[in-house]
Amino acid sequence: xxxxxxxxxxxxxxxxxxxxxxxxxxxxxxxxxxxxxxxxxxxxxxxxxxxxxxxxxxxxxxxxxxxxxxxxxxxxxxxxxxxxxxxxxxxxxxxxxxxxxxxxxxxxxxxxxxxxxxxxxxxxxxxxxxxxxxxxxxxxxxxxxxxxxxxxxxxxxxxxxxxxxxxxxxxxxxxxxxxxxxxxxxxxxxxxxxxxxxxxxxxxxxxxxxxxxxxxxxxxxxxxxxxxxxxxxxxxxxxxxxxxxxxxxxxxxxxxxxxxxxxxxxxxxxxxxxxxxxxxxx
Length: 282
Ligand SMILES: [Zn+2]
Known about the structure:
Layout: H1 3-6, H2 19-39, H3 43-76, E1 85-86, H4 88-95, H5 99-111, E2 115-118, E3 122-125, H6 130-154, H7 157-175, H8 179-200, H9 203-223, H10 233-244, H11 248-264, H12 276-279
Antiparallel strand pairs: 1-3, 2-3
């Protein structure tokens, strides 16, 4: 499926800061242009030009960020399958931006491991190997029990209400049938883990979790036995129960077992492709 068919109903997720990356991509030309103008002697004109360039630069950052958010949602929701080509030209046309802006959005996704770029071939939705899949879950096993303990120490009654609302949403999608409800359920399952990370109050860990949840979604799309998220709704409910009763050790243990269960639902055996004869039905 091409990206043009997919991007129609993308929702925009929370804005993230990529100031360092954009500082390089977009402000380098700005610095050069400003210096050229100043060397020409027209300081006032130069300042006006610089202001205009700065404004354009900022707008380009916003556009690239919005495109990144849209594409990320489409990848995480599995509307864009692993291996799908993401051409700069098509992305630029769809979002009515230059190739430079489209390239910046794709590079952001590449840094996050959701897009793979190949020399002379372009960008593709990442296709994680079984080993990479194992590493994703090994990382989650190290990080998420600690997040559960941190969240347990900070959780408020308002947070518990938010968790309950999140669980209700998951339950509603589980009860519905069809691929759209299934994608929504998987996204809601991931959102539970992100909500826990936000309650834990560590912005850096939260960023890690955003990447790990997104990568997990790709891995589940490729290797899930049942074709759905193995994020058990009842296990999420138990974790919230442990948070509510301030049993932090139990919350941590439940999270560890939960991640084990998600990984156990995957089939990470390396499968040999069909032989030529078999593939051609001879
Ligand atoms: Zn889960």
